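Q: I'm building a small set of examples for a reading group on sequence design. Run inverse folding on the following structure and report the sequence directly after it, with nothing in between.
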């Protein structure tokens, strides 16, 4: 008996379960690789922007440069939203400082939430695969064992050699379910932690940038 022969000889239901789990595993790995690259790029781009921002760059020039670009970092888009709202509100006559700062903070919070929503995209799929795959594999195993015992009941002589292939092929479904679930769970937990760290970084930047804007508005 080999793994491939057991899969080939499994019942149709078990084969469908295995095929579905393998498809989920392939999709999960594709998303894990894609999200790893996306989050790595987001961290790198945010670090580059913060380095430029805290390096003494002129805010107006930084804002104009950002408007000319369409591929800025998440941190830069938060800056663009907050500073753009700040300029718009300050240009109005008799603008209250509190209104200006509240509007700028709301704009930055909305931009940050959009960025976090984009970074969390497909995390729910990984969580679903991680939680459901073992049960789907278990269903295939139960079905396969039931099929094996039905065949054993129709046999004239019950031996271990008769029932072993059916049980073995059924257990492969559970193994494939775990093979699909474990990387998905690890990927989900890692990406959730990475997004949380970026969210904290965004919050810190927004607070520090708000202080800068408040000093500018008070002049």
């Amino acid at each position: 008996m080999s793994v491939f022969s057991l899969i080939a000889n499994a019942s149709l239901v078990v084969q469908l379960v295995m095929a579905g789990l393998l498809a989920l595993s392939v999709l999960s790995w594709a998303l894990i690789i894609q999200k790893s690259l996306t989050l790595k790029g987001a961290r790198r781009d945010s670090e580059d922007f913060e380095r430029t921002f805290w390096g003494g760059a002129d805010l107006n020039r930084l804002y104009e440069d950002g408007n000319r670009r369409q591929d800025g970092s998440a941190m830069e888009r938060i800056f663009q939203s907050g500073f753009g709202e700040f300029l718009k509100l300050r240009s109005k006559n008799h603008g209250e400082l509190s209104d200006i700062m509240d509007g700028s903070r709301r704009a930055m919070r909305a931009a940050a939430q959009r960025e976090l929503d984009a970074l969390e995209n497909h995390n729910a799929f990984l969580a679903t695969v991680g939680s459901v795959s073992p049960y789907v594999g278990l269903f295939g195993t139960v079905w396969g064992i039931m099929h094996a015992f039905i065949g054993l009941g129709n046999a004239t002589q019950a031996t271990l050699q008769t029932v072993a292939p059916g049980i073995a092929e059924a257990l492969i479904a559970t193994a494939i379910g775990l093979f699909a679930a474990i990387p998905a769970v690890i990927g989900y937990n890692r990406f959730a932690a990475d997004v949380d760290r970026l969210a904290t970084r965004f919050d810190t930047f927004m607070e520090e940038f708000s202080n800068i804007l408040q000093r500018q508005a008070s002049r």
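The mean pLDDT is 85.
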